[in-house]
Design goal:
Number of domains: 1
Strand order of the largest sheet: 1-2
Number of helices: 18
Shape: globular
Distance between the termini: 42 Å
Number of strands: 12
Strand content: 5-15%
Order of helices and strands: EHEHHEHHHHHHHEHHEHEEEEEHHHHEEH
Oligomer: single chain
CATH topology: Serine Threonine Protein Phosphatase 5, Tetratricopeptide repeat
CATH architecture: Alpha Horseshoe
Structural class: mainly alpha
CATH class: Mainly Alpha
Length: 485
Amino acid sequence: MKKYILIASSLLCLAFTNSCSESDLDLEAQSSDNIEVPLTEEKMQMLLKGAYFNMSSTSGYGTELLLFGDLLGDKLFMSSTNALYLFTANKTYGPNQSDFGFYRLMYDVIMSCNMVINDTNVQTNANVERIKAEAKLMRGYAYFILVNYYSPSPTSGINQEYGVPIVLGNYDSLIQPPRSTVAQVYEQIISDLKAGEQGTEAIPSTKVLLGKAAAKLLLSKVYLTRRAPGDAELALQYTSDLINNAASYKLAPVDQAGYVSYFSGDNDALSENQDETIWELDQNENSNIVTGIGSNIALPAYYSRLDSKRNLIFMQSFYASFNTTDVRRSLFAVNNAAGNQGYWTTKYPNKTRPDANSPQAEYMRNLKILRFADAELSHIEALYHTGQQTLALTELNAFSAKRKGKVYTSTGAALLTDILTERSKEFYGEGQRFLDLKRYNLPITKASNCTTNCDVPANDKLFVLPVSQSAVNANPNLKQYPGYN
């Protein structure tokens, strides 16, 4: 009978007797475990938790994926005081040097999900069906991350044979899969997300778990990235459902009065598990040990001006683009260091408290990954692409008005530019700007605070990350993206 070894480092599981909060993922005992086919229901759940913890680790959304999505864009620069991630900031990455560690990590996520999805021996019940659906959702999400970064945009018309390898079987150290085409990867992503949407919960017990709303939002983002014939209509369908039936998913937009406390206040009770959030990462003293979040590597450590490792600063021109009344503008703090003019963001406070009566602790706030605002702005984008520009402009101004932002009057291609501008204002620091530029084949232009690769033309090789040379050496069928050879 075939056996699979679950290594503790892959599952990222630890034993704790007490849970810090109701939102924690249950952490299992740290050990190597021989898992024979068939699995048990308990071990299927453990594999799924391992996928969650991998996704939440420092090389994943726990720190670096969110960081890279802005640092690779055009609004953020690196402080010279704490110069970290310089390969990324200067776009001097290559097969032998880079800051990226999430390529292998996402395949670890996929490996855990495959074992759950492929098992046919555990007796089916509602919980098993939910576990398998969640695993498919997570696998589709992992492939979407990989193809977004390691392949060209599907609308670029170039190098479409350079998707990422699709691996759907259980772990096998001997396989050497080639790249699939970009189109094939997107078909797999859509298949997984649709299956996940069908079987996951409409309202998960906590926002740290993926559910139907996450699947629908991700599908809309996939369709707005691929933009094949009919995709915009499908994106509109999914976002309309999320907006029109928000209460059915326990969703609601954060209002003007609650916006600052949702991000910058120190009270976690007003920030975590909120109706604005579709999915967030569990951060607490137990899970942080598992995922590696801490003083040496944490998103608040790099963004907060109050942290000794602070080094991520937004450009003055970006700050100046906000109306003085815009609530999002209040989440900036001026950087007074000579020669490094710009603005810190307070979106990621380094010290927070579970509630108003508790002491503060560092790096314990859950990180918001998917939000209701993305459904709203994706809906506006889908309206634009389905020829409903007048309605798209009306909804864009309604969204901006909720933040007391600017009034837009554009039409045609300028309207799409304004939609992307509003996205940049809403999601700064949330890892989306680079991907927005890439999916519309737009250049990266840094007019200040930049010395290397300040003007990257659309479809330049730098929009596609190189696979590490060690990965290429281990798999002769894995071709390096053109230009990095």
